[in-house]
Each structure stands twice: as structure tokens, then as C-alpha cells.
Predict the 3D structure of the following.
Amino acid sequence: MSILFLGTSSGAGKTTVCAMVCRYLSRNGVDVAPFKGSNLSLNSIATKDGGEIGMGQAFQAWAAGIEPETDMNPVLLKPSGKGVIQLVLNGRPYKNITKDDPMDRGMTLQEVKKAYDRMNERHRLVLCEGSGSPVELNLMDTDLANVGLMRVTGVPAILVGDIERGGVFAAIYGTWKLIPDELKPQMKGFIINRFRGDGSILRSAIGHIESLTGMKCLGVLRYEYLRFPEEDSLSSSDGKLEGNDVHTAFISNLDEMIAHAEEDGFDFDGLKKICGL
Amino acid sequence: MEKIVKKVNDEIKRGWLGPDHNCPYHPAHFTGQDCSFCYCPFFPCNDTTFGWELQGRHGAVWNCSDCLFIHRTPVVKFIYSEIERLGIEDAKDPRFNDIFKAAKERFWKKGKALMVVGATSDAGKSVTVAAICRILHDRGYLVAPFKSQNMSLNSKVTRTGAEIAMIQVLQAKAAGITNPDAHMNPILLKPKGDTVSQVMVCGKPFADYDVEGYYNEFVPGPGIEIVKEHVDFLKDRYDCVIMEGAGSPAEINIYDKDIANMRAAEIADANVILVVNVEWGGSFAYALGTVELIPEKDRKRIKGIILNNVRGNTENLRSGADRLEEITGIPVIGIIPHADVVLPSEDSEALRGVRSKGRGESLIGVIKFPRMANFTDLDPLFLEDVSTVFVEKPEDLKGVDAIVMPGTKNTVADYLWMQETGIADVIKGLWKKIPIVGICGGYQMMGKVLDDSNGIEAGKSAVYEGLGFFDNTTTFGEYAKQILRNEGKLAVGDGGEITGYELHMGISDVREKQPLVYLERFHADPVPEGCVREEDLTFGTYQHGIFDKPAFRKYFLSFVKHNGKPVDTSHAEDYDVTIEENLVKLAKVFEENMDVERLIDIAGVRE
Ligand code: SF4
């Protein structure tokens, strides 16, 4: 079984929400593991099996109480400057891609699918994270981690929107609208992230979006001061997030986040249902 | 009146003049204005499209200060041709009435309005408005910026003593307007606490509201009328009013109560352009969702979409933009690359959680008061060869080479915050060791006493002991001081020029000997202001914007030393010049990447 978290933009909070759900489910005894088809990031981490994956998945793995492994992030794209991107495939440097020598999308999508299948064999639930926005009209045809994955796996999806910047209802509705019609039935729910204030003022708008899209709102998460590990291409840490302290601090932050979510009435049961649990 | 007649007679005799660059006040109204009729031959025209009746001490006076009509070249040329045709030689000739009527008939028409809304709060609306203002101004249109409702703690004072948001002042500058006024930002919300804001109407305090009160009482009551009145005022005087929305126009939970976006567009009968920030991705979804969630009757006002802030090749977005056009039926009129400009921004880095900036060796600690106000004051300082850290806790002061205490909306509350956090103690420990400058609220804190026995600031009567760096006592009363523009000279250093403006509650009894500046006063002796103790490296002033001119920046930074090495200020530039250069740059980026002809059509100003 699996589920995919999509974001209305990069930085919408997918990584953190995935980590929170990993933690929540593992605390409830579910064998859960993170997965991100393709990652554009400079922040990577070495796995015990000698591979390399995006740092976000490593943290999510720890949140799920398991060790990071290469199948959690089969495609890692590391910008190395001057328009060159290093493609790390299944944890190993594979080739440098440039404008004139682009990535073989068909092949990589197959690799993504294979890794996804292997993860599904090993774990009860695979919690997938999308990449950026799933509906970049100029990139959608060649997408791997979002609609690409939805297409080849039929995975159900949940959309995470960031309310802090404003326009979250437009972002959720617009994203849903631009998802290809044949994939719309896979769009099951949405989450409003980073809210400050009294959630009741959003009720009517949420109802409106629910009735327009048929997606169910799982909840409104409050603004949390937990912003790492940064997964998007806009920020880079210098890889200093390892070590026990950070690890423990991260987990306890997630616990706090879960407590807040429960307090605010986040629909964990609904989420479980969508996951097929 | 006799004086005016004489002046007009001179103007009749002299003939057409055009812009008078020799006049020390030029341009008194707008860049490119015609100065032939500095005194108006129609005075008083009694036509409220142009002027208005001011109730003065000796009865009503006809006020022409907002009239731009008489400074438009075609109008002026027409008047002269009529004067010649009719053989008029005297200002009192009754036929001027006919000329006025004919001129209005021929050259005046109600202005248009164009509104810029953003899909998110950081879409880049403000700079887009500034860029459009400049582009249209460069093409000879007279345009004015407008934002019905602005929530901001960065305000400036207009020449009539009203307070408006800093960003509209910047946009007015882009439009070539010399005297921005409160019509351009009739409603200003200044956040007071977490939920309450002081509502300023037309630049004057109106009342305090919480969120609910604002939306349920203010908006449907006076709010809508205020927007109507002021948009209309501007439309009478300008070819086009370039309006800025607030946040997203598609917040469907407050749609009916929102007077900053589509409702304002409706009131002004404005066409609308939607700006989307591409940087974070999802821009097509944001654009489509915004368009579709706006009800049909308002949606049809949206006539163009701008994809803004593209890093990398704009062409990569072309195919997506074409698809978006197809789906929404709205043309994408611009794909704008990230504009690398230095302009004051409402979206202050300090507020966005940025903790430090700059690359210089010397480190300046800026105390980040919870109610920090007018922090764009410091922008020119950040352009120098220094680094900045925004100080929120005592540890942040570690290793700083200088301290800046900026302005605040509430001196006493923020002073107490500084004491509670322990920051005040660290500052006291650093006193006399590194330079410390206080501006406005920060300056007040540097005195010996903060007297709030009226309970104005903290809500309860108390007198507080200040930091004690200066022998000053500040007393808070209902009185607020607002001065648009001070000009003067440094009382220390090289005595260079400074400018500033004042905006504060409380007055200070200053017992220090050495002022920081001498403010020039019309037909009177210069007024000393601020305090300096050079031997203690301590500086303070009420002048917001004191860093704008290079003189004070250079003076202050000459005391700031990192490992004994002072800051290199040899490239210090007048900030006004920097802003102007950057407005030119900004407009160019937009112009080169936008369909300007289409913009002109959408604005509705094409002849
Ligand atoms: S308002 Fe304008 S046109 Fe009327 S008298 Fe004054 S300057 Fe002349």
C-alpha cells in the first residue's frame, strides 16, 4: 500500500508533513517507509548500504524508526553548477546530464517504478513525497515524482498547501484542476499547512473547495518552527544535520507537531483510510 | 490676489516656458511638468475636479495644491494660443472663463484605473506597480499609485502631515510624482498587537479595530466609501490610477469583505492584471486557481497575467504560458526575470526570518524590536560594506562591532522586552566600547527616563529608568509629532547634509550639550536635534531616514571598527540616487519582458 503527498509549490511543507505521518504511523505500530521518486537537492546523506539519497528521506526514515536505504530515493539530481546536473541513480553516481545530453526519462521512470515496487514488497505502507508542484505545465509530460508516479502506480494522493504566503485555496483548486482528468480520481484529500490563528474562519472556504473538487480536507496544520531538513533547491544546508542531538530534536519536534495536529482535530483516521489501513 | 494678477500678467507677457529647470522647487508637482503658469490665470476656477475649498482661518480659500491640469503642456499651449487669438493682455480679462471651459472640454477626461493583484502575498505586486508607473510615466502619461488598504509599520509623512505607507511613496516616485499624498493610500492599518490594528484614514488616526471589527464594522461602513472617494479624486487628476491589491484576491473565506482587491477594482472600474511569483513553483496552478475562484462578474476584469521573478531562462516557461493562456483565456502579457534591484521592500528580510545579511567584515547588530517600525530606514546602511545581524536574544550580540536601535511602534513595550530578554544588559556592557546609535524609539530608550505616567505606551502609569546613555527625559502624551521632511547639516564630523522625517509619540527634554544635527528652518535659526557623545561612541536622533544621505552613514561608520579596521565608505552614495537608478533598472526589466502595447490597451489610456 502507498500514498503520495503532493505540494502546491516547493516549500509547501511536504517533507515535514511526510515525516510527521511517518512518525505518527510508526508510533501506532505500522510498518511505514518513506519514498521520493526524484529529488533535486544538494543535501544528501550516505546510506548504510553505501548509497546516497536525499536528506529529506533519511530524516523521514528515522521518523519511521528505520534505517535509510537507497530505494527510498532512486533518482537524486545534484546541480553541480554551469548547467550540469549529476544524476545519482539507485544511490550511485550514474552520469552528468546537460542540456545537450538530457536524462533518459523513460528509463529513469522505470527505475523509479522498480524501486517503488521493491519498497512496497518490503514495507506495509510506502509514504511517497512528490517534488515541487505536480502541475508545472511546461514540465508535466516528463514528470517522475508526481503525475509520473501516479500514472505508473495508481497511488492515491494528498495535496499539501501553504497558507502562509496567501492564495492557498487558489493553489489547491488550481493544482487539482490541472491534474490530468484520468488521474483526478486518485486525488483524495488536501492539507492546509502553516496556519496562524483561529481555524474556524477557514471553514466555509474549505467546504467550498471540498465540494468543487471532491477532495476531503484532512486538517489545518499550524505554523511550526520546524523548517529542516530543507528539501527544496532553494536552500542548502552544509550537511551538518547529522548526529544524535539533531536526530532526537527532530523526532521530538515531530511529536510536538503530532500533538498540535491532534489538538487541532487533524483527521488521522481519514488519512489512514486513504492509505488503506 | 493682486500679487497673483501681477504674476499672471508677467506670464502672459513672457509666453510659453515649458519645464523650468532653473526653479529651485522644480519639479514641484511631477517630472516633466510645464511651469509656464506657476500662477494660474483661472484662479480661482472653483471647479472641484481640479482644486478644492479649504477652510482657512480667514474663511474659505481656493486650494490648488493638487491641481496638475495647469501643468500639462498641451493645456498650456492651448491657453497661450487662445490668449493670442483673443488678444488678451490682462489676467482679469473675463474671457479666461471661456478659455477655462474650452480647455477642460478639450483636454480633461476622467482617468482610468488599472489594478495589479497577486496570487500570493509575495507575488511582487508592489514592484510591478512601481514598474508600470515608471513605464507609463516615461511614455508621457500622468499616473498615480493607489492601494486602498495597506497593513504596514513602514510609513512616511506627506507634505500635509498625513501618514501613508512607504511603498506608495516609492511607487509615486516611480510615477514621477513629487508630492505623494494620502489619497494614494487612504486606509493604513498599523498592527498594534497580535490582533488589534490602529486604522489610519487618509493619514490620520481613525480608530482601533480587531480583525472582526475591521471586517464587520469598518469595511461595510466607512471603508467602501473611503475607497470610492479617493480613487475618484485621483481619477479626476491623473490619466490612470495604478492600483495595488493586497494578499491574494481569491481568499474565498473573506471575499465579500475584502476591499483591497476585486471590490476595489469594481469601485474604480479597473481592469486587472494578475501577478504570480514563479520562484517557488506551482505558478500555473496559483494563476488558474485564482482566476477560477473569483466569481464570474469580477473575473472578467482580469485582462492579463504576469509570470514574475523567473530565475533562469524565461523561454523555458513559454510553452506553459501558452497552455495557461489557452486554459484561462487570459493572455500572459509578461514573463519577467528576477530583477536584481535594491529597493526598500515591505517584505522586510528582518520580518521574513532572515537572521543576517551582507558580506562586509564589520558586523552591525540591529535590535529587532517586536514592534519595530520604519525599519526601511536602515536599508541604505545595509548597502555599505558591512554585515548585519538582527538581534532577538542577548547571544546575537556576540562579536558585533556596532549596535543600531531602530524605531518602534511602542517605545516602552519594546524597552521592557529588551530588559526581559537581557538584551538591555548586554548593550549596557558594550556601551563606550563599540558605537551605538538609536533612532526615534531607540533614541528615546537611550535617555535616563521614559515617563509614561499617562499610560499612553504601556497602558498603565509608570516611569521607567532608560539606558542612561544620554541625560534626556522622554515624556509620552497624546501628542504625536510628524514632520515630512527636515533638511539640515551634521553638527559633528564634516558637517555634511542630512535629511530626515519625524514620526513619534513623546517629546524629549534634552540636556546634552552636543547635538547630532542642525535642522534648517525657514527664516529662522537652525534647530539643534539629537545627541552625540563621541568619546562614548554614542549617537541618537529622532530623524528617520538619517542614513539616506551619505554624510551620517560615513560619520557613523568611521567609528565602527573590525579588528581596528574601519569600514570603507568611499563609495557611499545618496540613497535617493540609488533608488532612482534602481527604479530605472526595474522598469527596464519589465519593459523588455512585457508586451507594453498590450499593457497600455489594458490600462485603457491609449488616445
Ligand atoms: S485648481 Fe487648477 S485650474 Fe483651478 S484655479 Fe487652481 S490651478 Fe487653476
Q: What stands out?
A: Residues 211-237 of chain B form the longest helix (27 residues).
